[in-house]
Amino acid sequence: MSFSADWLALREPADRAARDPGLVAELAAWLAGRPARVTDLGCGTGASWRALAPALPPGTQWLMVDADPALLDRARRAAAGRPGLGFLRADLAEALETVLARPADIVTATALIDLASRDWLTRLGQAVPAGAAVYVALSYDGQESWTPPHPAEARALAAFHRHMRRNKGLGSGPALGPEAGAALAGMLAARGWRVRVAQSPWRLGPRDAALIAALADGAAAAVAETGALDPATLGHWHAARRAAREVRVGHCDILALPPG
Asked: At residue 139, what are phi and psi to the nearest 5 degrees?
């Protein structure tokens, strides 16, 4: 499971604009000015670091973890000369507990957990270090609106969700997709973490035409694999999504602070 650097670059501005600022501020306040050790799961090209580092205390150390060496190399080159950054190539499907056995004050991930199965999320919830905060951003919640809407939108979105729940290689069994945020929040709350969830939707318009087109193309390819729409309807729905003037794609951010 990996994504292209071009796709990650295309979505990064929308992700940064969508992050809930209240949760970021609460995380920074919890640190109370002390430098932190951050483990960034599935770091890609380093978008989480670019978004969060300005809000965290000086001297904070980052460990960026990804299975894709090309993405890690992009992250390393983008951060060249910046102190306090480490990079680790690791397959989180197999090595999650090993990675989280390292000292950390914050465990973070962006647009990751909706690709995971329930057993992998259970492992994550159990492996988070006892005193660490968890900040997981931009998890897809299944809510979308495309304006103007196409008559086949509801059927197509349901098919997209079925496709999203196929195994993505992050744990055994189906991915949780839109259910992942609530599942992880419940698991951490059961361990005693103080959990807050905030909405962080993408709100896209004419200036985001390239991202809208990429979302339309990716969704059309997924829906085509399900066979839920006949080819003519699929084509018309795909074209309508590409021409959308306004798009809202729902996500949630989760902040879980440890007991005490």
From this structure: -90, 125
Contact residues for 95 (Cβ-Cβ < 8 A; gap 6+): none
Q: What local confidence, expressed as pLDDT, does residue 1 receive?
A: 52
Is the pLDDT assigned to residue 198 strictly greater than 60?
A: yes
- The rounded distance, in Å, linking the Cα atoms of 134 and 191 is 12
Bridge partners (DSSP) of residue 108 are 40, 135
- Write 216-224 long-range contacts (CB < 8 A, 24+): 216/241, 216/242, 216/244, 217/242, 219/156, 219/160, 222/159, 222/160, 222/163, 222/164, 223/156, 223/159, 223/160, 223/163
**What's the whole-number mean pLDDT along residues 107-115?**
97
* For range 76-101, the mean pLDDT: 94
User: For the whole prediction, is pTM greater than 0.90?
Assistant: yes
Give the whole-number percent of the chain exceeding pLDDT 90: 95
Output the average pLDDT for the chain: 96
Helical H runs in the chain? 5-18, 21-31, 47-52, 69-78, 92-100, 118-127, 153-164, 180-190, 209-226, 231-242
* Per-residue b or e along 11-47, where b marks 16 or more CB atoms closer than 10 Å to that residue's CB: bbebbbebbbeebbebbbebbeeeebbbbbbbbbbbb
